[in-house]
Amino acid sequence: MFKYFASVVLAICSLFGLKAQELQSPNGSFKVVFTLENDGTPTYQLFLKNKEIIKKSKLGLELQNESKSLLNDFKVVQQSTSNFDETWKPVWGEELAIQNKYNELAVTLKQNESNREIIIRFRLFNDGLGFRYEFPEQKNFTYFVVKEERTEFAMTGNHTAFWIPGDYDTQEYDYTESKLTEIRGLFKSAVSSNASQKQFSDTGVQTALMLKTVDGIYLNIHEAALINYSCMHLNLDDKKLVFQSHLTPDAKGNKGYLQTPCVSPWRTIIASADARDVLASRITLNLNEPCKIANTSWIKPVKYVGVWWEMITGKSSWAYTDDVPSVHLGVTDFTKVKPNGKHAANTKHVKEYIDFAALHGFDAVLVEGWNEGWEDWFGHEKDYVFDFVTPYPDFDVKGIHEYAKSKGIKMIMHHETSGSTRNYERHLDKAFQFMKDNGYDAAKTGYVGNILPLGEHHYSQSILNHYQYVVEKAADYKIMINAHEAVRPTGICRTYPNMIGNEAARGTEFQAFGGSKANHTTILPFTRQIGGPMDYTPGIFEMDIAKLNPNNNSHVNTTLANQLGLYVVMYSPLQMAADLPENYNRFLDAFQFIKDVPVEWATTKYLEAEPGYYITIARKDKNSNDWYVGNSNGYNARISTITLDFLEKGKKYEATIYADADNADYKTNPQAYKISKQKVTNKTKLQLRTASGGGYAISIVEVK
Ligand code: NOJ
Ligand code: CA
């Protein structure tokens, strides 16, 4: 491990002193220019290979109830630069070691009259920029309320954007590809319905935002280390083509309560002429604090199946009965009501899943709908909705634990909160202790519906603090967390690697709620996954949902081979085989790939990438010399051409290729795949046809 840190105070500047300061990335390809305007407004400008990629953009914050905001009238009192180079090892990740190398510029600003001091810190990496606001402890500036952060990202042209509507409560949208000036006109059609949603502007979009300039530069705007602050959206001034930060408000409309000393999250801009570099960037992780969990030996990647898809499709139910109009926890006696016959989380059925998991080498089984309260869990803003410890009468917690243990299978707990954060905190200790007592060491949490306390949003500061509290409390119990409907990740898993999964985007469930766009997973790695892994829950083999539930005519908009490719394309240390055992039993030859694919990686190579169109990734297994390749293709059928030059020179391998059949098509023929085997070396070149909405998966095993 190489670590070097040096700090040089460049200049002590007076009001009349130096007002512009340049910083270059370690390899010289990026340059950021900080300037203080004549009225004392701080600005920055970003260049890639001497080409402007972010025009001069203002920095600052508007404060509530203060005569003066933190927008202008500053003078520079100090500027210092330093550099940093360290290689660190993630507990889990896409590679064994990550280099964190940057040059830094910290500008200390003092405001006239108020005498308040802030620092703007820039870190320039070889793949992009991070910057944040810092508020040192000072007598005249202790508590303050943010009315709005006023960070600008001024575009150099009418770029192509891959965007979802800005929303305080959900990210579960399909992406739209359009020019910046087209966002306003397309906005309404980009909004689909959700259990909780609140848009704020018809040019408002979410981060991570993926952009492409006319001259082929890929730009990505996001944030890192979002802790004790509210989530940032971007609001576009579509006349000037300037994005303005837009924080998520609380019930009173305020956007953050801060106490010095404190810092904002990092604002990040990744940029390259090669889209693969955006996927390879580790800026988001690098801008987070090192791991704060002393002993991480209990944190383990997991491949799992679950009593889940049958409820999502409507084949089975989470609820135990249809006879109880509303549940009163502790009062409603479920031993006296008539079961609806569709309750999937029953001991017999769960044991079948455990058998299936054990037979095919999975690590764990998730069970949803095991606890009392599902009869009216949704849409009522019910505070006391679940207690997280009381099973329905047909779910034998102890018996299931013993059975799973005897088969070497771990159980994954489900904690749906229905957005009632206070209720969850109220029960958290008991719920986690109950898990430990019954052999569970991972929980999937969920926040469906409007947030309680009412008026708060899924992405406002105090609710983000709730998600963080749950992750930290879980770490005390040695419990891993996979949160659904929580805020999108910003690399916090580096600091708390027990945050092993997150949804925070439109996952596979929407394929059973009417379907997602066929190119969805060629965009997610460029957007949602810039912040961290996603519990996307791939592996659907039956695309016609009516076969599971005649009342659901949804169609899964991918081919079967695409579903296999997702295990490599959609990185996650937590991977689900989401379909029903009976569907896997129909296609055991294709299922073999899901059985074989690892969840822990040593190295990752990005072979092909174009947002919205295709992604091909190769990863090396952490525990062997084997490689796995995955491709996800968009709407246009295409030939993917790859060279296996990542394989070790001189070694021989056997590749098993799971590809779309020649006549495959996500709409008309999604289950048409072909499996072939061939000997390969690091000289082998492969040309594989990918169907519309198709893809492929390859396992490459060393032949000894
Ligand atoms: C939404 C989650 O994303 C899904 O996975 C879960 O099954 C339901 N909520 C019920 O909790
Ligand atoms: Ca969800």
In short:
By secondary structure, the chain is an alpha+beta fold. The radius of gyration is 26 Å and the shape is globular.
Could you walk me through the main structural features you see in this protein, from its secondary elements to its overall organization?
It is an enzyme of class 3 (hydrolase). Its EC number is 3.2.1.-. Monomer. Keywords: Calcium, Glycosidase, Hydrolase, Signal. The protein is α+β, with helices and mostly antiparallel strands and 704 residues long. Among the domains are: 2-286, Distorted Sandwich (Beta-galactosidase, Chain A, domain 5); 506-527 and 540-569 and 581-704, Aldolase class I (TIM Barrel). The chain is 15% helix and 34% strand. It has eleven helices and 37 strands. The strands form seven sheets. Strands 1, 7, 8, 9, 10, 13, 14, 16, 17, 21 and 22 form an eleven-stranded antiparallel beta sheet that branches. Strands 28-27-26-25-24-23-29 form a seven-stranded parallel beta sheet. β9 and β10 (128-135) form a beta hairpin. α5 (347-359) packs parallel to α6 and α7 (421-437) packs parallel to α8. The longest helix is centred in the middle third of the chain and has 17 residues, at 421-437. It is globular, with a radius of gyration of 26 Å.
